[in-house]
């Protein structure tokens, strides 16, 4: 294994709070730095700083928790080229690996064993122009598409994209999530039911349990 290095903000053990493996004990590897600035971002503390770590040291830190599930997130993980060997090394080690990405970067090099959770940025994030729609055909049933929605306008936009790109047919799960503290959870749930959308409603479980803070 090459001993590449990556800038890391935190490595912690918690319950997966989002997406398909929600509720399962998971180790989170949060990479430092992000080229986007979503207005609602709950991980601004990962924009700068962090600590440079060797791949072997990251693997050792992860192994300490004896986990089954690993979630690589950030910041924007794919903004660091060495994220690709990290993902492959985690798969080689036998973990079930997911990747949280904005999809503003090319996902072509992501290891085929990884479940990519690609977040298409909605208009209210302020970063809708950064979506790389070219990534969509690269996604498969093992992957997930996430929409984080801050308003009814965002919801209508997401509904349109669902249809425009046939997203429910492309990936295993399409996730609709409210921006925490911005859109009433129940409103989003009611709209999904009214429209009979083929999507999975999700709320950030970790914030219900522990609040909005790093390390959970
Ligand atoms: C912090 S980001 C890191 C990965 C990548 N940069 C991305 O945006 O997908 C992880 C996920 O948290 C979501 N997120 C960030 N702040 C949020 C908030 N206030 N409410 C709901 N979801 C949020 C993002 O939209 C993204 O899906
Ligand atoms: N518990 C927990 N689950 C998560 N799933 C995705 C997260 C992220 O920040 O990407 C996250 C997080 O920060 N905490
Ligand atoms: S892309 Fe992800 S980490 Fe970057 S600002 Fe948006 S939510 Fe935060
Ligand atoms: Mg988070």
TrEMBL record:
It catalyses: 6-carboxy-5,6,7,8-tetrahydropterin + H(+) = 7-carboxy-7-carbaguanine + NH4(+). Catalyzes the complex heterocyclic radical-mediated conversion of 6-carboxy-5,6,7,8-tetrahydropterin (CPH4) to 7-carboxy-7-deazaguanine (CDG), a step common to the biosynthetic pathways of all 7-deazapurine-containing compounds. Its cofactor is Mg(2+); [4Fe-4S] cluster; S-adenosyl-L-methionine. HAMAP family: QueE. The gene is queE. GO terms for molecular function: 4 iron, 4 sulfur cluster binding; carbon-nitrogen lyase activity; magnesium ion binding; S-adenosyl-L-methionine binding. It comes from Marinagarivorans cellulosilyticus. Belongs to the radical SAM superfamily. 7-carboxy-7-deazaguanine synthase family. InterPro entries: 7-CO-7-deazaguanine_synth-like (IPR024924), Aldolase_TIM (IPR013785), rSAM (IPR007197), rSAM_QueE_gams (IPR027621), rSAM_sf (IPR058240). Homodimer. Pfam families: Radical_SAM. [4Fe-4S] cluster binds at residues 34, 38, 41. Mg(2+) binds at residue 43. Its EC number is 4.3.99.3. Binds 1 [4Fe-4S] cluster. The cluster is coordinated with 3 cysteines and an exchangeable S-adenosyl-L-methionine. This is 7-carboxy-7-deazaguanine synthase. Pathway: Purine metabolism; 7-cyano-7-deazaguanine biosynthesis. S-adenosyl-L-methionine binds at residues 40-42, 75. Residues 21-212 form the Radical SAM core domain.
């Amino acid at each position: 294994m090459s001993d590449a290095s990556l800038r890391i903000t935190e490595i912690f053990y918690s319950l997966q709070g989002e997406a398909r493996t929600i509720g399962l004990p998971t180790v989170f590897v949060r990479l430092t730095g992000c080229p986007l600035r979503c207005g609602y971002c709950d991980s601004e503390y990962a924009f700068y700083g962090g600590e440079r770590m060797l791949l072997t040291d990251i693997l050792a830190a992860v192994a300490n928790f004896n986990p089954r599930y690993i979630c690589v997130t950030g910041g924007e993980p794919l903004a660091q080229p060495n994220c690709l060997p990290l993902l492959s090394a985690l798969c080689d080690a036998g973990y079930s690996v997911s990747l949280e990405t904005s999809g503003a970067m090319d996902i072509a090099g992501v290891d085929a064993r990884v479940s990519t959770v690609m977040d298409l940025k909605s208009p209210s994030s302020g970063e809708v122009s950064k979506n790389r729609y070219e990534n969509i055909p690269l996604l498969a049933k093992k992957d997930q598409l996430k929409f984080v929605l801050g308003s009814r306008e965002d919801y209508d936009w997401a509904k349109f994209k669902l249809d425009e790109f046939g997203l429910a047919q492309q990936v295993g799960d399409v996730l609709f999530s409210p921006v925490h503290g911005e859109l009433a959870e129940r409103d989003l749930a009611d709209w999904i039911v009214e429209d009979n959308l083929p999507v999975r409603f999700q709320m950030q479980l970790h914030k219900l349990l522990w609040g909005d803070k790093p390390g959970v």
